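Tokens for chain A. Residues wanted.
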């Protein structure tokens, strides 16, 4: 066979054909539409891919990654957060790998697909509640797997969309969110022991946040309002086996800008950070609020119960005393985060906190999904560079017990997706398995899929699989074990 890469079952749905694939809508609109971030316009299924090294046969499941992939030329401005959600998947099956990509068929995607022109504004120009200048609810941020289905989520709290984790076909909006008239933020959490989905919705109106629990049957089990002092911009939450942790951080919309339809954020270091520790099925009266030093955080690494306390580890911002600098850095995704630990003492009501690691700027942290809410030792993160927009230049494994870290980078011009821990079929210890990530090689304009031995990240990928298309830079990922998909 001349070409070992077989393409089959592709959809190729878009009528748009860019003359310059590296800047498909023309130069100068936004660096988030060029090079490693440039969208692609074909939906493909590719198998029999060239492999350097050997694909482990005890790695079975699917690596799923979400991210923005703008379908039509933007109206004016464009931010990385604005693009239509596209799913990319690498399905590992007894040593063979199949790559797929598909847009998520959100209402907004279908609307713009039919019109073939942009209907929505950038977060630079609008806010979520602006009827005159609508913002696109794109499901482009995060992925969880629960109840036998993938669910794509949006960071400003939008409609969660279910999809098939193998075909990537969109199934539709989740039944529980439609029935309850709730939106769901990115970073809902799944307890794999109970297959419950724990989520939060947040909004500009009182009570500003709602917390909920969905059962494995997809039905809402519990929900409760989380009353905040005003509208906030939380990004993540934590769970333990007993509690959920919701964030009230001193980062919020500039309300004068909001009223004129603009999205501008303010960091107020005069306010404390507050964390709501709620029993999993707790009501508003059972919330325990803990104050901490003012900060912002995008991402939680993991949380767990420990004696009479709840522990949360995350990537914390706000070490700088320059509040405008902090707000700008957060708005522009200029990551400057440190691994940090909070301990909420349920007996005394006090918080103790401090950095775990001071030297490295680490973000997009992950830990094994099966250990959500249980004490973990390792986290897998990316290192960030500005080039001129944020890119994931390397992968780091951090050991919370010893403080040691191991890291790997291919060097300048090769940028990773969020890495995810993929357990071996017979996992016997926390890091018995692999770490999987897409890597975009900008000089060669092609992507690869890298599989690391999770115990030996520093040795580099155990295998590199060529993906003969660009997998544009994106946001969050997950891993679904083959055993979780049985009976689909
Ligand atoms: Fe995120």
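Reply:
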């Amino acid at each position: 066979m001349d070409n070992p890469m077989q393409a089959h079952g592709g959809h190729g749905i878009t009528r748009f054909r860019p003359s310059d694939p590296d800047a498909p809508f023309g130069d100068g609109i936004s660096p988030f539409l060029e090079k490693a971030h440039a969208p692609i316009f074909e939906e493909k299924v590719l198998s029999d891919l060239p492999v350097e090294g050997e694909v482990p046969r005890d790695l079975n499941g699917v690596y799923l990654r979400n991210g923005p992939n703008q379908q039509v030329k933007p109206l004016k401005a464009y931010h990385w957060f604005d693009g239509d959600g596209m799913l990319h998947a690498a399905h590992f099956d007894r040593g063979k790998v199949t790559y797929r990509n598909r847009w998520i068929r959100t209402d907004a995607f279908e609307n713009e697909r039919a019109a073939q022109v942009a209907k929505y504004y950038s977060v630079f120009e609008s806010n979520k509640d602006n009827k005159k200048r609508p913002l696109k609810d794109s499901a482009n941020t995060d992925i969880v797997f629960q109840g036998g289905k993938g669910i794509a989520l949006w960071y400003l709290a939008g409609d969660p969309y279910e999809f098939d984790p193998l075909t990537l076909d969109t199934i539709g909006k989740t039944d529980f969110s439609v029935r309850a008239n709730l939106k769901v933020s990115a970073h809902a959490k799944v307890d794999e022991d109970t297959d419950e989905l724990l989520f939060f919705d947040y909004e500009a109106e009182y009570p500003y946040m709602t917390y909920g629990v969905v059962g494995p049957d997809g039905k809402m089990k519990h929900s409760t309002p989380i009353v905040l002092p005003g509208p906030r911009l939380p990004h993540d939450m934590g769970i333990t086996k007993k509690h959920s942790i919701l964030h009230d951080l001193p980062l919020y919309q500039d309300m004068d800008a909001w009223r004129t339809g603009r999205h501008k954020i303010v960091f107020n270091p005069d306010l404390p950070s507050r964390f709501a520790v709620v029993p999993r099925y707790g009501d508003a009266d059972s919330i325990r609020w803990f104050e901490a030093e003012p900060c912002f955080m995008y991402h939680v690494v993991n949380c767990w119960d420990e004696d009479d306390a709840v522990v949360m580890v995350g990537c914390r911002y706000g070490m700088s005393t320059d509040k405008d600098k902090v707000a700008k850095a957060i708005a522009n995704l200029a990551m400057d985060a440190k691994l940090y630990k909070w301990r909420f003492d349920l007996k005394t009501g006090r918080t103790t906190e401090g950095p775990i690691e001071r030297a490295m700027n680490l973000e997009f942290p992950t830990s094994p999904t099966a250990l959500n809410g249980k004490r973990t030792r390792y986290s897998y993160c990316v290192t960030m560079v500005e080039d001129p927009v944020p890119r994931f230049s390397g992968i780091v494994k951090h050991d919370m017990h010893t403080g040691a870290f191991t890291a790997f980078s291919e060097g300048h011009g090769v940028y990773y997706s969020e890495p995810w821990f993929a357990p071996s079929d017979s996992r016997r210890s926390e890091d018995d398995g692999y770490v999987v990530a897409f890597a975009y090689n900008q000089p060669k304009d092609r992507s690869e899929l890298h599989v690391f031995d999770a115990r030996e990240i520093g040795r580099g990928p155990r295998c590199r699989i060529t993906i003969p298309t660009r997998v544009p830079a994106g946001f969050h990922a997950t891993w679904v074990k083959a055993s979780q998909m049985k009976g689909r």
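Residues 107-115 form the longest helix (9 residues). The pocket of fe (ii) ion is lined by residues 186-187, 235, 298-299, 476 (CB under 6 Å).
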